[in-house]
Write a structure and sequence with these properties.
Layout (H helix, E strand, L loop, with lengths): L10 H11 L31 H4 L3 E5 L8 H16 L2 E5 L5 E2 L2 E2 L13 E4 L8 H6 L4 E4 L9 H14 L5 E3 L19 E6 L6 H4 L8 E6 L8 H8 L5 E8 L5 H14 L3 E5 L4 H11 L6 H10 L3 E3 L2 H13 L7 E6 L2 H13 L9 H7 L13 E2 L9 H10 L4 E8 L6 H13 L5 E6 L7 H7 L5 E4 L2 H20 L3 H4 L6 H7 L7 E2 L1 H10 L7 E4 L2 H11 L3 E6 L12 E5 L2 H18 L5 E6 L5 E10 L3 E8 L4 H4 L2 E4 L5 H10 L17 H17 L4 E11 L6 E3 L2 E5 L1
Parallel strand pairs: 1-2, 1-5, 5-6, 6-7, 8-9, 8-10, 10-11, 11-12, 13-14, 13-15, 15-16, 16-17
Antiparallel strand pairs: 3-4, 18-28, 19-22, 20-21, 20-22, 23-24, 23-26, 24-25, 26-27, 26-28
Helix pairs in contact: 7-8, 11-17, 14-15, 15-16, 19-20, 21-22
Length: 740
C-alpha cells in the first residue's frame, strides 16, 4: 500500500490542481467552447457537467420513509443520514405520513408539506416511481433510491426501471440509483491533505479497499455508488470529479456502461483536465459479462472495444481492486515525472535482477547508468558488484553515511525519474536503515521514490512508521502492483502531454463523399462487391480497375480494357465469402481463359443457387501486405473501426486493433503499432517496406465513412486491402458492405 499523504509529497501536484481548479469549468482547454456542438451524426461533441455540488454538500435533505423505531432497517439508515447531515452542515427533514416526529425532529406528511425546498431527497421506499412527480413539483434537485428489484432482476425489473427513468427524464430531478446504497454518505477523514481520490462504484463492497486507503493516509474526497444508473451514471460523476480542484485521480469499479458515448465524452473531459481515471471494468470473459449483466442489468459491451476505447481516451484499466487502490493513490499524489528512466536499487543481486526483468517486460525503461555515474557509485559500493541498473549494493550500509550517498547519487542522474527499492523482507538493522535513508532522500527530491515492502506480516516499524509515515515515499506490498502503478503514472503524463481531443477534430458537416455514398446505400440490404467498391471510391479509397459484365464476350472485351493478367469474380448481394465456393479465378492471361472462367463461375453460381448481378473482371494487383480494414457497430459505442492482418486467414490470425471514431492520424498509427504482425509492414525476408502512410489514409477515410454513414451503414469489410511497397499506395481488392 502507499504511504501517507501528509507533508510535501504532493506539493507541486496540489499546486497544479488548485491553480487549474478555476479553469476546470466548461471552458478548460475548450471542452465546451462551443456549447451544443455536434458532429456529422448530430451527436454532442462535448460533455455537459452536472452540477453535483448540492448532491454531495446539500443545505437541506428530506428523508422520505424516515424511522426511529428500533429494529427497522429504515431506522439505521435514518440515523446514519442524520450523522452525515450534521457533518456536512445540512438541515434534515423527516418525511412520513404516519409520524409526528423522528428522532425528535418534526416530521412532514409529504415532500409537498416540507417547510422549504430541499436539495436532496433520500427515498427509503420500496417503489420510488410514485414519488417522482411530487419531487418535481417540489423542485427537489436530487434524489437517491435504494430500492432493489429493478433491472438487476430480469425483464420485468428492467421494464420497471425504464418506467422510472422515463419519469425522471425532464422532471428536473436527478436520480441516483435504484439499487444503490449509503456509500455517498460515508464519513471521510478530514485530517488528510493533498489531492484526493474520488471513487465511483456500481457495487458498493467493491469500493471498500479504496475507501480504507484513508487508514494509510490517502485522502478520499467523494464516493458515488451509482447502482443501476437509471439516471445519474458513471460518466456524470467522472465529468463532475474532473472539474473538482481537490480531486487528483478518479477510481472506478465498472460492471457495465449505461452509454458508451457518454463515457467517452466524460473520459475526454478528464483527459483534457489532466485528471487520471483508473478503472476496473469487469466482463473480460463470457462468464464475467453474464454475471455483470445479472447484477446491474446493463450491457457489458464487447471487451475488445471497451479496452480500446478506454486506451484511446487515457482511461487506465487495471484488473484487480488492489491494483485500483495502489494505482489511483499514486496517480493522485505523485509529482509529474521529470524523466521516464527507472532505476532499481536493491540489497540483493537476485532481487534486483528479478524486479528488473518484470519491469522491463512491462515496458518500463531501465536505462544503463553512465560510466561516470557508475564510477561515482563504486566509491561506496564494492567494484565487483553491478551498479549499471539494477544497482546492487551488496547490503545497504548501516553504520555510516554511505547509504544515503548512494541513493542521492542515483536520484541526481538526469535520466532517472523513478527509483524503486524492493525490500523483500525485514532484516534489521539493514532494512530499517535502508527505509529511513530512502525516506530522508525522498524529502529532498522531486523524483518518485517507491518501495516494495515484501514482508507478509506488515507490522514492522520500518513499514508501519517509517515508510507509511512518509509524505514522500510510495510504498507497495507486491512487485506487480508497484510496476502497474509506476507504468500507469509515467504513461498518464506522456498521454496527457500529447493529448488532442478527437472531438476537436470530428467532422461537423458532411463531406462531398457523403452525398455520393448516400445514393449507393440500399437500406436493409447487403451490397454486392461491385457496389461496395463504388462506395469506397466515393470516399477516395483506391480499388482495382474493373468492369461488371454479364456475358463471356463482354468479359473478353473488359479484360482487354483492364489489361492482362486479370482476376474474375462472381458479384452478388448474397456473396459474403466467394473463395470458399470457388467463385474467384486469378491470373487469367488470355481471352480463352477469360471465356472459360466466365462459364465456370456462372455454372458454380447456378449450382450453389446464388443470384448474381454479374461477373467482375478486375485488374490483377501486385503482391503486397494483405490487411483488413472494417466498420462494425458496437452495442455501447456505435460505429467502430478495425484494422488488422487480412487475407483468407484473417479469422485464424485474429490480429486486429479497434478504435471508436472520431480519431486522428496518431491514433490510426497507434492501431498499427498494437498489431502482433506489425513487422510485416516494415518488410521481412527481403520484402520492401509497405506504404504505411497509404494504409493510415485508408483507415482515416473509413472512419470518416463510419461517422457520416452512422445511421445507414451497419458493416463494412475491406479484405484484403493490399498495401503495396512504400510510395505505391494501397488497393481494396474486395469489399463487403451491409446497410442498416
Amino acid at each position: 500500500m502507499l504511504g501517507s499523504t501528509h507533508g510535501t509529497f504532493t506539493t507541486d501536484l496540489r499546486a497544479r490542481v488548485v491553480a487549474c481548479g478555476e479553469e476546470r469549468g466548461v471552458v478548460v482547454h475548450g471542452v465546451a467552447a462551443v456549447p451544443g456542438d455536434v458532429d456529422v451524426s448530430g451527436r454532442d461533441l462535448y460533455a455537459a457537467v452536472p452540477d453535483l455540488d448540492r448532491f454531495f454538500r446539500p443545505e437541506s435533505v428530506a428523508v422520505v420513509g424516515a424511522s426511529d423505531a428500533e429494529g427497522r432497517p429504515n431506522t439505521g439508515i435514518t440515523r446514519q443520514l442524520l450523522a452525515w447531515a450534521e457533518r456536512v452542515g445540512a438541515r434534515v427533514h423527516p418525511v412520513h405520513p404516519r409520524r409526528e416526529s423522528v428522532f425528535g425532529i418534526p416530521c412532514a406528511a409529504s415532500v409537498a408539506a416540507l417547510p422549504e425546498t430541499v436539495d436532496l431527497a433520500v427515498l427509503l421506499v420500496a417503489d420510488p416511481l410514485p414519488l417522482v412527480a411530487e419531487l418535481a413539483e417540489a423542485k427537489v434537485r436530487f434524489a437517491v433510491a435504494f430500492a432493489s428489484g429493478f433491472a438487476e432482476t430480469g425483464a420485468e425489473g428492467a421494464a420497471a426501471q425504464e418506467r422510472l427513468a422515463e419519469a425522471v427524464k425532464g422532471s428536473g430531478v436527478r436520480l441516483l440509483g435504484p439499487n444503490t446504497n449509503l456509500n455517498a454518505f460515508e464519513e471521510f477523514r478530514e485530517d488528510l491533505d493533498g489531492p484526493a481520490v474520488a471513487l465511483i462504484t456500481q457495487s458498493g463492497h467493491q469500493g471498500r479497499p479504496v475507501f480504507t486507503l484513508q487508514e494509510l493516509g490517502v485522502r478520499l474526497s467523494h464516493w458515488a455508488p451509482t447502482g443501476n444508473e437509471a439516471d445519474l451514471e458513471t460518466a456524470d460523476f467522472i465529468s463532475y470529479f474532473a472539474t473538482r480542484p481537490e480531486v487528483g485521480a478518479i477510481a472506478c469499479y465498472v460492471e457495465g456502461l449505461k452509454d458508451g458515448r457518454s463515457f467517452l465524452l466524460a473520459a475526454d473531459r478528464a483527459a483534457r483536465a489532466g485528471v487520471p481515471v483508473v478503472a476496473v471494468k469487469v466482463g473480460r470473459t463470457e462468464t464475467g459479462a453474464r454475471t455483470a449483466a445479472s447484477h446491474t442489468g446493463k450491457l457489458t459491451g464487447a471487451d475488445q472495444v471497451v479496452d480500446a476505447a478506454m486506451r484511446q481516451y487515457g482511461v487506465i484499466r487495471v484488473d484487480g481492486l488492489d491494483e485500483l487502490q495502489d494505482t489511483a493513490a499514486l496517480l493522485a499524489r505523485a509529482h509529474r515525472p521529470v524523466a521516464d528512466g527507472v532505476v532499481v536499487y536493491s540489497i540483493s543481486g537476485g532481487t534486483g535482477a528479478h524486479f528488473a526483468d518484470l519491469a522491463t517486460a512491462a515496458g518500463l525503461s531501465l536505462p544503463t547508468l553512465g560510466a561516470a555515474k557508475q564510477d561515482e557509485l563504486h566509491q561506496w559500493i564494492p567494484d565487483y558488484l553491478n551498479v549499471a541498473n539494477p544497482v546492487d549494493n551488496g547490503g545497504h550500509p548501516v553504520g555510516d553515511w554511505r547509504g544515503r550517498k548512494i541513493i542521492d547519487a542515483i536520484l541526481a542522474d538526469p535520466d532517472v525519474g523513478v527509483l524503486i527499492c524492493p525490500i523483500t523482507g525485514p532484516f534489521p538493522p539493514m532494512s530499517d536503515k535502508l527505509a529511513q535513508d530512502l525516506v530522508d532522500a525522498a524529502e529532498t527530491t522531486d523524483k518518485l521514490v517507491c518501495v516494495v515492502w515484501g514482508s507478509p506480516v506488515g507490522t514492522e516499524d520500518a513499514y508501519r512508521r517509517t515508510l507509511l509515515g512518509s509524505s514522500r515515499v510510495a510504498t507497495f506490498r507486491t512487485f506487480a502492483n508497484c510496476i502497474t502503478a509506476v507504468r500507469a503514472h509515467l504513461g498518464h503524463h506522456r498521454f496527457t502531454a500529447a493529448y488532442r481531443s478527437p472531438f476537436d477534430e470530428a467532422p461537423r458537416t458532411p463531406s462531398p463523399s457523403f452525398r455520393k455514398a448516400q445514393a449507393l446505400m440500399r437500406p436493409g440490404h447487403r451490397l454486392s462487391e461491385h457496389a461496395a467498391k463504388q462506395l469506397l471510391r466515393a470516399y477516395g479509397i483506391r480499388v482495382p480497375r474493373e468492369q461488371l459484365v454479364t456475358s463471356a464476350a463482354a468479359a473478353v472485351r473488359a479484360a482487354g480494357l483492364v489489361g492482362y493478367p486479370v482476376v474474375m469474380k462472381a458479384s452478388g448481394t448474397q456473396l459474403a465469402h466467394k473463395t470458399e465456393l470457388g467463385l474467384v479465378k486469378v491470373g487469367l492471361t488470355s481471352a480463352s481463359q477469360v471465356r472459360d472462367a466466365y462459364r465456370d463461375l456462372t455454372d458454380i453460381a447456378r449450382y450453389e443457387g446464388v443470384d448474381l448481378d454479374g461477373i467482375l473482371v478486375c485488374q490483377m494487383v501486385a503482391k503486397g501486405v494483405e490487411m483488413v480494414v472494417g466498420v462494425t457497430r458496437d452495442a455501447l459505442f456505435g460505429p467502430t473501426v478495425t484494422v488488422g492482418l487480412g487475407g483468407v486467414l484473417v479469422e485464424v490470425l485474429n490480429d486486429t486493433a479497434v478504435r471508436v471514431p472520431p480519431f486522428g492520424e496518431a491514433q490510426a498509427r497507434d492501431m498499427l503499432a498494437e498489431l502482433r504482425g506489425r513487422a510485416l509492414l516494415d518488410g521481412v525476408r527481403g520484402a520492401p517496406p509497405a506504404d504505411v502512410d497509404a494504409l493510415v489514409e485508408v483507415v482515416l477515410r473509413v472512419q470518416r465513412m463510419a461517422l457520416e454513414l452512422d445511421g445507414e451503414l451497419s458493416e463494412l469489410d475491406i479484405n484484403p486491402l493490399m498495401v503495396l511497397p512504400r510510395g505505391q499506395g494501397a488497393v481494396a481488392l474486395d469489399a463487403l458492405a451491409v446497410c442498416r
